[in-house]
Amino acid sequence: MELNKPDEPRYSMDDLLRVMQRLRDPEQGCPWDLQQDFSTIVPSTLEEAYELVEAIEHGDFGHVAEELGDLMFQVVFYAQMGAERQLFDFSHIVDTLVDKLVRRHPHVFANGDIEGVVDGAASVADVKQSWEAIKREERAARRQTSALDDIPLALPGLSRAQKVQKRAATVGFDWPDSAGAMAKVAEELAEFSEAQALSADNGEVRHDAVEEELGDLLFSCVNLARHSGIDAEAALRRATAKFERRFNAVERCVTARGDSMENTSLEELDRLWDEVKGTA
Questions:
Q1: CA 70/CA 47 separation, integer angstroms
Q2: pLDDT at 1 > cutoff 50
Q3: Is this structure's pTM higher than 0.85?
Q4: What's the pLDDT tens digit per position in 54-104?
Q5: Is residue 152 within 8 Å of residue 160, measured between CB atoms?
C-alpha cells in the first residue's frame, strides 16, 4: 500500500521570515504583533511547547507538524525582534546552534568539520562523559563555577529537580544505586508525617514546616524516578492523564443514571472508580 504523500510545500524558510517582517512592519504590520516584546511572548512560547508535547503524547501526528510550526514561529518572532534592536537575527541563531552542535559532538564531526568523519564508534557512556566535560568547559568560559549554574529556573518543578540531581551526580554527589533513593523516600515520608502530627498537636497549622517536608518528599521521589530510569515529569503527566480518563468514566456512569457527582456519596464514587479502573 502506498502511503499518502504530503503536498509539495508552497513556502520556504525565507517566506516565513518575510511573513514575520511584514507582521512587524511599523506602518502596515499587525497591531498585536507590533505590541509584543521579548517578555510578552514568553507565555505563548511555553504554551506552544506544551501543545507540541500534548500532540506527541496523544500520538496525534497529524498535528505534530502544525505544532512544530507554531513553535518555530516563536523562534522567528524572537529573531525578528532581535534584528530590530540589532542584537541578533535568524542567521545568528542558526550559526550559534550549528556551532554548538558540532562542538558538542566531536565523536561525529572530526576536527569540528560538518563533513568530517570520525574513525570508530563511540559508546553512549563515552558520549555522556564527553558531553558533560564540554558543558563544564562552556560554563567555565561563562565564569559559571557551579555545576548547577546554567539550569533554567523556568523549567517545570519536576523537570528542574531531576536536572539538578542529574547534574549533581556528574560530579559524584549521588546515591550509588536506587536503594539509597528508596530509603530517602521512606525517610522523607516519615518526616512529613511527623510535621503534620506536630502541627495537629499544637492546635495550629504550621504550613511552612509541612510544605517544606512535602517538598523534600517530592524531591526524593524525583530522585527515585531518576535512579529507576524514569522521567518524573512524563510519569506524572501520564498518571494525571490516567486519573482524568477514569474520573471522566465515573462522571459518565453517574450522569447515565440521572444523578450528579455532588449528590453521589463518596462510597458510591469509590465503588464506581474501582469498576472503571479495568476499562479506563
A1: 10
A2: no
A3: no
A4: 899 888 988 999 999 999 999 999 999 999 999 999 999 999 999 999 988
A5: yes
Q: How far apart are CA 24 and CA 72, in angstroms?
A: 17
DSSP calls for 129-153:
HHHHHHHHHHHHHTT--STTTTS-T
Q: Assign residue 61 the CATH number of its domain.
A: 1.10.287.1080
Q: What are phi and psi of 142, to 5 degrees?
A: -90, 5
Of 273 and 198, the one with more pLDDT: 273
Half-sphere exposure of 124 (CA within 13 A, CB side): 0
Q: Is 109 helix (H, G, I), strand (E, B) or coil?
A: strand
| Domain, as residue range, for 268 | 235-276
Mean per-residue pLDDT of the chain: 89
245 residue type, one letter: R
Residue 159 CA, distance from chain mean position:
6
Total domains in the chain come to 4
Same domain, 203 and 244: no
8 Å CB contact between 169 and 190: no
Residue 92 within any structural domain of the chain:
yes
Q: In this structure, is residue 117 part of a structural domain?
A: no
